[in-house]
Amino acid sequence: FSSGGSSRFSEHDDRSRVETHHQSDRSTSRGGYRGNRRGSRGQGNYRGRGSKFRSDRAPSGGQGDNGNFEQDDDGDVNMEGTETRRFKPYARPSKNYDRKPRHNNNNNQQSRREPTKNWYQITILKGSTLDEEWLKQEIQTLAMVQFHPVQYHLDGNHSCFFVDDHVTAGTIRDCSRKITSPDGEKVAILMRPYNQSPITNDKISKIQEVLASKYKSDTHHLDASALFSDEVLRGEKIFLKVNTSAHMHIITRIIAQNISTLKSLDISNNRLFSFDGLKHLIPFTPFLQELNLAKNSLKSIKELEKISSWDLIKLTLDGNPLCSQYTSQTEYISDVREWFPNLTSLDGHDLPAPVKFDVEKVELPTSVLDFVQTPNGADTIKMFVAEYFKCYDQSRAMLAAAYHENCLFTISIPPSARGPPLSKYFKHSRNLKQIKNMSQKISTISQCQADVLAKLQLLPKSEHDFSSFHLDILLVTSEVTNFIVRGIYKEGEGFEANGLLRAFSRSFVCQVTGNALKIINEQFFVRNPTPQEIKDLKATTTKNKIPSAPAATNAPSQDDMIASFSRESGMNVGYSRQCLEENGWNYEKAGQTFLELNGKGAIPAEAFVK
Description:
Layout: H1 15-26, H2 30-37, H3 51-57, H4 106-113, E1 120-124, H5 132-143, E2 150-155, E3 158-163, H6 166-173, E4 189-193, H7 201-213, E5 215-216, E6 221-223, H8 231-235, H9 245-258, E7 264-266, E8 290-292, E9 314-316, H10 329-337, E10 345-346, E11 349-350, E12 371-372, H11 378-394, E13 403-412, H12 423-426, H13 438-443, H14 449-458, E14 462-476, E15 480-491, E16 501-513, E17 516-527, H15 531-539, H16 558-569, H17 573-582, H18 587-599
Parallel strand pairs: 6-7, 7-8, 8-9, 9-10, 12-14, 13-17
Antiparallel strand pairs: 1-3, 1-4, 2-3, 5-6, 10-11, 14-15, 15-16, 16-17
């Protein structure tokens, strides 16, 4: 095309030159045509976005590496940019793919490498049952770092707190699954950046002042509605989000410390979508009867289960998405009353009296730690138990005198350990819910004295904590007695409260021969202790439920020892004195001698006549 002729391409359009280029290629031989069609790729001239290809294709108006929809000398837009290759969606990517100018901001890169002082939220999964001080001490001991947890609070079943240092937060996170909780579970720890600073103590004081102004002492009513848009708080640049566990914890703490007599609470219009935070207010407000939850974001009626411990008589849910799910008012009232049966007002409307059965309210019997059906023989049983577990911990071969020749013995463990594994007991366990094979059901029963002693020798060594013992005496006759011993022991040698603890329950059926007991049937159950049992164990380190010696004093008199020995052995004062004298006034040794002689029937009957 001539410059003066009509053309559908402008003089600045490179497509006119490309046309000519291809025509010249077609005039060559077939082999040359193929070579040119491939763009001399085999010779290395065209590899991805090679510079030689760009120099042939780009006219003087091109901008080289800087041209990407840029202008030429006449101001027209160069639609080709740095190259005019045909787009091949399935072609092999170029090594220079996505080569874009990068901002060389050394300050930003340095800030990413260096730890910054921002806030981080630490979440302890299932940490609501863990003690805050215990958890802090365990992390500090493991990570060897000192930190102060800010705003420690509960979020549903988890616990959370904040730290203001990246290195400290990362160190705490690295402790995940390296700490074992008292119930034997590994403690999982999560960390994430927190995009705002926790509320300071000064601001908490301001929140307390605002809540105090909203509290009516004559009716014990607190208006905590729409706290996020409260003008006083926003004037102090406090944006209280009650639907977050951290901010709900602040309100809970203020109410717990100042207005525990609360009877009516309005917490409407706070965008609540869950009661995971609100439920922690229940223990501190036992008298609450009226609750306003209107205009929140509750979507499920099942959320009411989390706060069902409140005995509410007035409840307002109007304005929540869950209300639109009901087309029947009767069904709506019925579902709400499932959690609050004494409700008399719902959404401002009086409700018909609930239909209740006229059932007499009966209080449950008081729980007692030790149960003794009859005091007859109780002292003998207690002394037998004390001596039995002493021998069990020291030398189980000494237990031969405690078992009948034709005794039976079984041991079992729960299907799930819920803590440290019970693998050492597994092959001996006779849990009938787990064992289906009949031959295994029979083989796990020890059916004579020798088999029982052999089985006991195979079990892990133990050291029992007598302060944890509870004794239930269920049956006492002249021929047989049945009692159960429950408690905690340390698996292995040396009792340590923080070691591997096991809880046990052992049921004994004993034959009575005079004042001697012979075990004819024993059922031994082993499991991991609950957190409450471990807590109780730490609280009672000195109390002994089953006396194995007289109460410790600075210098117990011989008369006190005789009286105690006579009471526990059942012998009269004369024979008790004789037994103590012959054993050098060693109370434990005298008790062991008594058990051995009494087991052999060597103690005369008159020794028990008082």
